[in-house]
Amino acid sequence: MLYNSYLFFLSSYRLTNCADRALLICVPLKNLIIMRTSVLYTVVTVSAITLFAIACNNSSKETAAETPKADSASLVKRGEYLVAVSGCDDCHSPKAMGPNGPELVQELRLSGYPSTRPIQEVDKENLKKGWALFGPDLTNAVGPWGMSFAANITSDATGIGNWTEEQFFTALRKGKYKGQETGRPLLPPMPWANYKNMSDEDVRAIFYYLKTIKPVENIVPAPKAPTEL
To answer: Rounded to 5, what percent of the chain is helix, strand, coil?
Structure first.
């Protein structure tokens, strides 16, 4: 209990029947009041203070955890820009002829050579003369290496949906198929030798962005060797 005076607290502890009891001495300006309280009160009070401190600490951590989300959004935006200016759509997006020439088929964007499309016959005579040729929408190409098909780089499992960031770096830095160290080399016209000079931040931004785009299920055909043309 409190009176119209300032209180000063002095606590002393003793052990009774293996349980701590506290003797709380309250010294008012005029009266001396001795009151006994169980250690339970102390425990509850300390626990409340501790929980409050933890809650504040967790709140601080949650605020800090939200920061990467903002950073990720910024990274995705950067990736969207880089994909647009780096010519990814030129080869990886199917196209249809429109009034102004080839136009992206938006629902198939960045899904690579359509698996449902018949593979065109190759003019071997021109190949013998050293020509390298593109298919009508640039999603496949043929040359001394044989015939290659633009990969599906959407977020679908048939694209890069299951890729790790490390795989993406390996693909662009080392030109390895599916980002596997033991994979075959990426074939022309994939300009990975240029992309390998991108900063880590830019490569990561592209990866983050591609992970957010619409998944398109499309299993791209395997490349053909020159002898299979």
So the answer is: 40, 20, 40
| Polymer length in residues for the chain | 229
191-222 pLDDT, tens digit per residue, is: 999 999 999 999 999 999 999 999 999 999 99
Angle at Cα 163 formed by Cα 62 and Cα 147, nearest 5°?
Answer: 155
Residue 161 phi, psi (nearest 5): -55, -35
Sheet with 133-134, strands from edge to edge, namely 133-134, 140-143, 146-149
**Residue 105 near residue 99, CB atoms below 8 Å:** no
Domain ranges of the chain: 8-48, 88-228
Distance, in Å, from the CA atom of 30 to the CA atom of 185, rounded to the nearest integer, reads: 92
Do 7 and 25 touch, CB atoms closer than 8 A? no
In whole angstroms, what is the distance from residue 68 CA to residue 63 CA?
Answer: 10
